Amino acid sequence: MDYPDYTDLLEKITYVEGILRMAEKYGDPLPLEAVIRDPEMEEVIKKFYHFSDGRAFCEAFENAENFHDVLNVQFAGEKLLFHLRKHRGEHVLPNTHVIFCSRGGCVVRIKGQQELYLNEGEACVIAPGVSHAYFNLSETARVIHLAITASFMSTVLFPRLPQTHPCTQLFHNVIFDHDAAVPYIFVSKSFPEEMTYFLTSAFYYYLYRPAMYEEIVNSFLVLFFSYQLQAIGGQTDLPESVKLSPEQTLQMILDYITGNCRSLTLKQLADKFHFNVTYLSLYLKKNTGKTFTALLQHARMEKAAELLIDTTLSVTSVADAVGYQNMNYFYSLFKKTMSCTPAEYRNQYLHSEQRVVGQEQI
Fold first, then answer.
1. How far apart are CA 275 and CA 283, in angstroms?
2. Least confident of 41-55, 212-226, 292-306
3. CA dist., res. 254 & res. 294, Å (int)
4. Dihedral sign for Cα atoms in the order 279, 283, 289, 291
């Protein structure tokens, strides 16, 4: 099924907003004059900002104090703001924020420290009052940023969501519980074409306001969030992960490497924890000082050491159990890590009845 894409309208409004913010910063409303010379742009501006014509729109910004008032757009009876930017600096607002990656990829930074990578079709729902920023990872990437008031969430949206869905309460707690350990929810891939259609259609019907437009807008947003709940339900590790601190998240990744070291790849690890492969590689290096390859190698050597002292497997079988078929390479790595050969390591344990710990840090 082909879904209508109204992203071009959102791009027009985002472009105008960028012009407005530049005019506000430099006190020069002249760029607005150039924008309204385009009849199509003027019509969109009139509908979005509720002005009779382009001239009245430009005149509204003769006083710099008017900028913020005009930019506070009333949407379906509540303040819901849509943006389609390539980056957004650190900001805090008393609204729920939804960052949805409809194309390409982006990085979302929460509270200036924790970073999440969003692939195409993935979203991050951020609780009110939580500082965040984001930036696209390529010129072709596209991110829809939606801000929703608490009133709209509590009186319009949540009553319409499936109350019996196991993730509805989790979603509710993250949004409304100011003491939540992790004030956001990562939502894995959930039909990017449909999600883009729901969000841009909500914007489209607000813009042109046909009969019953408020109900239509609300319905599109309910569809969007219902799909998000469905996607959340498929994330079996989510109820645990939303409670983790950044340090605990890193430890969970390291534990997963240890427990799956035999055949684990960087791509598999990235998919498990919802990271881009390149970003995960940089993340591990930044937070551990080691590459993924070094971490995996260290986990394999530790596992090999355990098997040598806890089992009667041959050295060849031990090497195979930790992912090495090349025995010369396995011997070389083991000796470098443990300062002795596998056979010597086992003999040392048998004679001392205690485990020998490798001296070299990888």
1. 9
2. 41-55
3. 12
4. negative
